[in-house]
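Q: A reviewer asked whether we had any structural model of the full assembly, not just the individual parts. We don't, so I'm hoping you can provide one. Inputs are below.
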Amino acid sequence: MDHQTEINYIKKILDGDTNLFSYFLNSYSHSVFTLIVRVVQSKEDAEELTQDTFLKAFRKLDTYRGDCSFSTWLFRIGYNTAISAVRKKKIVFPAIDEYVIDTVADEDVDRLLAGNDSEELLIHMEKAIEKLNPDEKALITLYYLENNPVQELAQVFGITPDNVKVKLHRTRKKLYVMIRELTKADA
Amino acid sequence: MSSDKIIGDALKQQWPDELPAGFNSRLMEQINKDVAVRKRRQTVLSYLLVGGVSLLLVGLAGFLLKDGILLTFLKSVKSMFAVQVSSSALGFSIYIAVIVLFLLFMDGYFRSLREKRLKQDAE
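A: Here is a predicted structure for the entire assembly that you could use as a starting point for your response.
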């Protein structure tokens, strides 16, 4: 369904035809859950937060201006809901020295990520992703799993497209450093 | 960057993507309940508002009548504009009551009209 049709649906919902909201639920609940579960790292919490996201979206539907796609708006609510939940838990994520990340060569990262799909690397990658902070998890989920373009990610996270690219670039390097450490530990 | 298949694969393996069966329908039920509660709250609030304003008007009328201020005022208005205004306290109270009842009736009428129209649109 295109953007204009979605806006028409929203107008009808605001006029009282609330059952039309099920269209948005059926279209986006899976994607919103995919994002939230990776940020909060708990299936039960993610289900509850997905529910909260849609309730918030429904209650604030009149504030949707239509200047971005409805999915982007929904992801923004989902992301903020998930981040707030993680902050409440006060989980500390491991930090990596910025200097170490800066010294990693892009070619080394490209070589590791593009040319190798071994089972060992996949397991290490899963472990490395778990150690990323919630912002980074959300970013790579929407980029690599949901295939959202950089422009839309900028709207979800409230930053510029250039900043999105920089964050993605740094997250790749961070993953590389963590995988390198995990490989060393195994050896 | 988009060719980093391994990141996508790891993300896919990490967590199940499936929501429990009936999640969407349960959420839709909750949304409908939310709408019903909101409607009920609005109705109660509007009745409270109308009731409050009515009480205020009746109270004001009682206060004015008690001190004879209203009668003096009505007499002066009558003399100034030579308009036929009832100076009876009972008449004034009836006048206020009729206005309040009329407003309540109109409120109910327009509400039912709006609900009928919404139902028709939904069908």
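A: Points you may want to mention in the reply: Chain A touches chain B at residues 12, 15-19, 21-22, 25-26, 29-30, 33-34, 37-38, 41, 43, 46-47, 50-51, 54-55, 58-59, 113-114, 116-117, 121-122, 125-126, 129-130, 140-141, 143-145, 168-169, 172, 175 (CB under 8 Å). Residues 18 and 142 of chain A are 28 Å apart (CA to CA).
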